Amino acid sequence: RQVIFFLLCVCVWQSGAESLRYSLAEEMERDSFVGNIAQDLGLAPSQLAARKARVVSEGSQQLFGLNPSSGVLTAKESLDREEICPQSETCTLFFTLFLDNPLQLIRGEVEVVDVNDNSPVFPEKEMVLEILETTSPGSRFPLESAQDTDLGSNSLQNYSLGSNSHFSLATKTRNDGQKYAELVLDRQLDREEQPVLNLLLTAADGGSPPKSGTAQIRIVVLDANDNTPMFSREVYEVRLDENSSPGQLVARVEARDPDEGSYGKVQYAFTQLSKGSRQLFELNPETGEIRVAGKLDFEEAKKHEMMVKAADGGGLIAHCKVQVEVVDVNDNAPEIALTSHTASIPEDAPPRTVVALFSVRDRDAGDNGRTECIIEGDVPFTLTPTFGNFYELRTNAALDRETTSEYNISIRATDWGQRRLSSVERLWVQVRDVNDNAPAFSQEVYSVWVAENNRPMVRIGSVSARDADAGSNARVQYAVVREEGEEQGALSVNTESGEVYVLRSLDYERVRALEVRVRAVDGGSPALSAQAVVRVAVRDENDNAPVVLHPGGESGAGELVPRWAPAGYLVAKVVAVDADAGQNAWLSYELAKATEPGLFRLAPHSGELRTARAVAERDAARHRLVVLVRDRGQPPRSASATLAIALLNDFSDARGRLSHETPPAEPDQTLTLYLIACLACVSALFLATGLAALLMKVRRDRRKRAEPLPTFPTAVADSDAGSLPRSLVYDVCLATGTLSSDFQFLGPLLPCFPA
């Protein structure tokens, strides 16, 4: 703070040190040359233009202008000293020169030089004096003064009187420096000889050439009146507030005349009263009361001096002086004059940025003219006094357009009067947007679904992101973040609206879910962005029919059932799978066709085929069953399988029961060899299946994607699906050719052999 205060003092000292003084004769033409500021400051005109030089006159009217290209100061209009400074001996106009980069204030003044452009003027063209013929020589009679608004040698200098045999003229000067004339009686008047005298009074100024004004003096010689009116005081001094209302009593002058009749009746009248005072006061000729007739203004005239004459009916007169001192009251509110104003600033403007420059002026005097400025409300701005009565409006904190886009700043200037007056100047400052906000999605994760086998380019949802900035900084565009993986190309997003589309038909059995990242980018420079995840769940449709794993083949499979099988005997298990999911994969089993419907029953949920009753001797030896497998999709899909069942008394004739021809018998050694080969194949297949399962697990861990559906095998030995546990599923290797290569496995039986 001490450093800032020191720099401010240096700036003010330098500004005060560089003062410009010029003079200009009044009544000069418009755009008259006043002075060359660039030459006086030792600056090139280009420097003035670069530093945005401007001139601001004090007061509400701008009287001077600066040509930045030449650095010449000119008067904007013809100046009349008598109008600008009516009550001042010297007329000096002040202005301030403002320079930017860096900020510099230079005070200047222009003295308006008086020229002799006004002639002396008498308030009345004819003055009438009634003088007794008994008036003794040497008597003096004050005359109405002529008014000349010029100053110095151009003002009123002397009076002269036309030649006559009775009167001479004496010129005197009042305390305020104005000259007035007194008519001096040199020789006794004689009414009978000459009742009326006409004299010519001339007032001349000291200009070159001089100007003059004349008035007629008409002297009426009266009969004798030996008593002159007498005032109680020669000088009446009055203090009067400037806000005195019209009609208020100022003073009451009183003169007494001991004569009787008309010679003792006194009449009062103003003499030697200026034009301005004549409009402000009125005198009752009967009572001598002086009252306020107009509006007093301390700022225009601080004192008024009036001469009052008292005349009796015989023409004798007396004079007194009334001096009125106008007391200042706080009747002028401070005036705020805006010099420069920045209508908008960027929201990233640093603190202490200058927004406006203005001055405060109060026309009152003393404490009534002292002012202070504050900012109303809680806004991030502060006022800094600079030079004289100038203030700078600066920011004092960081701005955020998203919080407040514009400020209505109320600057209040208040004076120090007993009845404090104030005025308010309101400034609008807009905060320009800067791209400081990234787009924000309404959700971090968007979850949508789509039915499989969809049409390409179908809309499945939308994403939405908003940017708190404005204009192009708030314009958001969307794009899919491309990553590795074939499913990444399945989705697309509309650049403007954020609508999400599926580009191709999806298959639930291949891809159950998709996940992509969508980026939202604004239009700022540099651009800001944000990302969100779009998860697409593929809904399964019933587009896959059940697949029967057992019994397999087109011709079905054969099963052997002993004739001693009781009711509930497990004949076979129908195993089927459905590539769909959920309800579409729920399977039910039923017998569509049977040779003897009452002998077998099929479990609708497990697919187990059991005997419905005990097998009888009368039952046919061969049975053919058609099993129908149906899912629960809409519409449902189904598959069928055929089972050939042979009823046997002994398993030795199993081969003959299952075929239509009688194959040759084979030795037991060949069957044993085949059994060993089959076991070896089963072991090798088991090892291969385990290794394949391990490789698939490792592959799934690497991909980290949605779990794919299993690939359904075409044989029972390649799958672990179905209703049976793995321990009850056996791998069978059958060679093509003769029936001697067939191998049948029968489930465990608990037969009850007859004795």
Automatic annotation (TrEMBL):
It is a single-pass type I membrane protein. Gene3D superfamilies: Cadherins (2.60.40.60). The gene is Pcdhb5. The keyword S-adenosyl-L-methionine does not apply. The keyword RNA-binding does not apply. Keywords: Calcium, Cell adhesion, Cell membrane, Glycoprotein, Membrane, Repeat, Signal, Transmembrane, Transmembrane helix. Residues 20-122, 123-231, 232-336, 337-441, 442-548, 561-666 form the Cadherin domain. It is found in: Cell membrane. GO terms for cellular component: plasma membrane. The lineage of its organism: Eukaryota, Metazoa, Chordata, Craniata, Vertebrata. GO terms for molecular function: calcium ion binding. Residues 1-19 form the signal peptide. The chain crosses the membrane at residues 671-695. This is Protocadherin gamma-C3. It comes from Eubucco bourcierii (red-headed barbet). GO terms for biological process: homophilic cell adhesion via plasma membrane adhesion molecules.
